[in-house]
Amino acid sequence: MNDDLKQKLSSLMDGETDNHAEHTISELITSESLRKTWRRYHLISDALNGNLPALLDRDLAGTIASEIAKEPIPIAGYRVVTRRFLRPAAGLAIAASVAAIAILGIQQNSDRTQERTPIQLADTQLPQINANISSYTFPASSNAVSSQIENTGDVEPNLRLNSYLVNYNEIRTSQTGVQGIIPYVRIIANDDDK
Amino acid sequence: MRSNETDQLLVARVQQGDKAAFDVLVLRYQSRITNLISRFVRNQNDTLDITQEAFLKAYRALPNFRGDSAFYTWLYRIAINTAKNYLSLQSRRSAEVEQDFTEIEQIDGDNVLKDHATPEHLLLTDEIQATIISTIEQLPEDLRVAITLREIEGLSYEEIAEVMECPIGTVRSRIFRAREAIDNQLAPLLEE
After folding, report:
1. Which residues pair with B123 in a beta bridge?
2. What span, in angstroms and rounded, lies between the C-alpha atoms of A133 and A190?
3. How far is CA B191 from CA A37, A46, B16, B187, in A?
4. Which residue in A66, A162, A137, A93 sits closest to B59, CA to CA?
5. What is the mean pLDDT of residues B4-18?
6. pTM value?
């Protein structure tokens, strides 16, 4: 094991790694030898700070790792994702689906000689909102909707979907007086614009 | 960057599905947590079992960890609660079964813990402590000062550089060399 890597490990222990923390962690995770060195460095620290127990279990980490191997993978912020992201994302998908159905319904009642796509109809028949949304990538749940409107030529699929959903949501808001997904979408878009 | 930021990186990896990153956290804090729990629990075998349980609870609770506090603070609270739950359970059992210690030892609850009475798993830390202290005392002064300022005084590399009037890179190197010198004595003791 080279000294350069161990020195980085020493720095990582102190949180003084500058730009190579992630790389060092990757090395640490994959190298048993490096993990043993990591453990001993921390033993040194604990000894100097009076944090050593009377007895140490040599196999404690291994035993815990064996038990954790049986556990499901903890997904980061799952509840947070559900509250902040998945619900609006699901809402977007539902809203888009409903809007698509509504637009298609409108199309059936319109002049059938016009060969315009649903999104082009939405552009002309629904209020245009200058939402200043850049290319926001929607989650996979809305791909089913975007696939319906992907063959419309010049407009980027994400921008089309953005304006499509913005327009629908504005209509919904004006009808119900309830702001739904737009505040969240605007925040994301504004962040992209920065 | 400080050591709690190292923890944050590791926690983020675990939360993204990398279980091996949790092993790194266990190696980092196992002694401290064991020592903490040993202040609540007299029986050493129980201490190790409870330490295991605390880490398992922490792993299961990681999706709920949002970084509002330092990871170690959060882990510390879990460890204390685990120890308290153990003590609470023990006191209830003691009240129900007066002198039947055999029954108490056989009760495992819903833990998946192992018996750590096997001597080869256990290390007496007195010798480890003595070796470390002895090695530090024999270090060259610049290495001894650097490691002491870092480990005992808790100074950052930048602060140590100011104290020792040297570049941060030199501080980094001295601390590493000090650790390596101690590690060269420690590794044979741990048979590693």
Report:
1. A56
2. 7
3. 12, 19, 34, 6
4. A66
5. 92
6. 0.64
Q: What digits encode the pLDDT tens for the residues B94-114?
A: 665 444 444 444 444 333 334
C-beta separation of B131 from A43 below 8 A = no
CA B167 to chain centre: 31
Which helix or strand (DSSP H or E) is residue B124 part of?
strand B122-124
A179, amino acid identity: Q
Residue pair B168/B161 in contact (Cβ under 8 Å)? The answer is yes
Q: Give the contacts of A170 (CB within 8 A, at least 6 positions apart).
A: A127, A129, A182
| ipTM computed for the complex | 0.85
Rounded Cα–Cα distance for residues A12 and B1 (Å): 9
User: A13, A65, A60, A47: which is closest to B189 by C-alpha?
Assistant: A47
Closest CA to A16 of B169, B1, B161, B171: B1
| d(C-alpha B13, C-alpha B19), whole Å | 8
Does the structure show a pLDDT above 80 at A98?
A: no
Q: Report A:29-88 residues touching B (Cβ under 8 A).
A: 29-30, 35-49, 51-61, 63-65, 67-69, 71, 73-80
Using the beta-carbon criterion (under 8 Å), do B24 and A25 form an inter-chain contact?
yes
Q: Decide if B63 and A75 are in contact by the 8 Å CB cutoff.
A: yes
Give me A109's structure tokens.
């009642």
Nearest residue to B72 (alpha-carbon basis) of A42, A7, A60: A42
The torsion angles phi and psi of B124, rounded to 5 degrees, stand at -80, 130
Does residue A92 have a pLDDT over 70?
no
